[in-house]
Amino acid sequence: CIAKRVAVNGVNSNTSGRMRQKMAKILCVCISKERKTCSQNIHECEADLQGLVGDVHYGMGGRKQVSLLPYEKVKEYFEHSGEDFRYGRFGENLLVEGIDWNSIAEGNRFRCGDVLLEAVRIGAGGPASDAYKGEKVCTPMEPWFVFCQILEAGRLREGESFSNRDEKYVILQQWAEYYDVIAISKILKTI
Fold first, then answer.
1. Nearest to residue 40, comparing CAs of 28, 31, 48, 53?
2. Per the confidence metrics, is the pTM higher than 0.90?
3. Are residues 160 and 47 in contact, defined by beta-carbon separation less than 8 angstroms?
4. Given the DSSP bridges, would you call strands 94-97 and 66-70 parallel, antiparallel or unpaired?
5. At 64, is the secondary structure helix, strand, or coil?
6. What sign does the dihedral 161-41-90-92 (CA atoms) show?
7. Measured distance CA(53)–CA(29) in Å, rounded
């Protein structure tokens, strides 16, 4: 039997506990009642296939149902601006700590408890953002926004772990790689 050890969340499965990376997590869950305004931290929220229940963008169609921002960049902004730190300041839905934001690409999937998200857009700038010219809510963080579609519904909670890979997908990928190895070895035996 061929066994393959893989890294999940950047941690090798045979790494000791003290060597493990810090688990990424959701620091706040926010919704807005009006467009182009700061959002309010409500600590947890139902996420269904139409968006975050209670959010201004809920049920509007489209794939940009949930917005994410990296805590590290938001913290850096507040340290340099002199503003008091405030969750939801940029209108984000989720503030996430501990993810390598530079490695995120469209199509990446994220697991947050029962909820499965898929990145559908990186950044809030470009021609589509002309409607936001002059507004001060999102602008400072435009390059760091990640917009996601909800693929599996559930409840999003503050403090919930945030995995940059869907574990179900990783398991299926491991099985696919394993069976590819078996198929290749069978082909090589016939040559």
1. 31
2. no
3. no
4. parallel
5. coil
6. positive
7. 12
